[in-house]
């Protein structure tokens, strides 16, 4: 039997380069990134609600400091997931808790990543992940379409929605799976300001395919299209749909 061919939607090298650059930008700005802060808040709230007090925890993606502090206050031994390939079996574990913050939306093999996450849990352990899902960044998507005119290029990657995420964690064997979402709305004065924030979060294009550069005229069309969604204060409300996935290992 031949191995299942994996999709090649994302470039690992571009994802790594973007992560390194975003970390440098956040350190220079002295901040964690509001999306990662928000996602970490969500995980702390969920963990407090289920009253799961893990002895060992693995944190993947971009956890904010207060998530780490919360777990250590629960006397958990916290392991950083830095360097772990989420699409391959983990070389560490098992853990009572595995939490992923903002990284699963750009893996080529999301079903495999969820399976590896589940298998690295100890019996009775909990997995929880939060990520940007569909629909998100609708104004940016419209702006990019306006930039390219009649020949749109692949500039933004597809995102998983609630229904697809629920099916995936069930297939991955997560026990008592729960998937829900909420919308985070952020106001921007310009397209340029949004792009700066996306780079701060490592959310520039990580697609394996390379789109042609946006022309000066295309950029002007994109900026204009973005501002067409502005409110009476001249701000554009951009949306991020935040998905939260959780489940257990029996």
Automatic annotation (TrEMBL):
Pfam families: Methyltransf_23. Keywords: Methyltransferase, Transferase. It comes from the Bacteria. The keyword Membrane does not apply. The keyword Ribonucleoprotein does not apply. One of its GO terms (molecular function) is methyltransferase activity. GO terms for biological process: methylation. InterPro entries: Malonyl-ACP_OMT (IPR050602), SAM-dependent_MTases_sf (IPR029063). PANTHER family: ARGININE-HYDROXYLASE NDUFAF5, MITOCHONDRIAL (PTHR13090:SF1). This is Class I SAM-dependent methyltransferase. It comes from Parerythrobacter lacustris. The lineage of its organism: Bacteria, Pseudomonadati, Pseudomonadota, Alphaproteobacteria, Sphingomonadales.
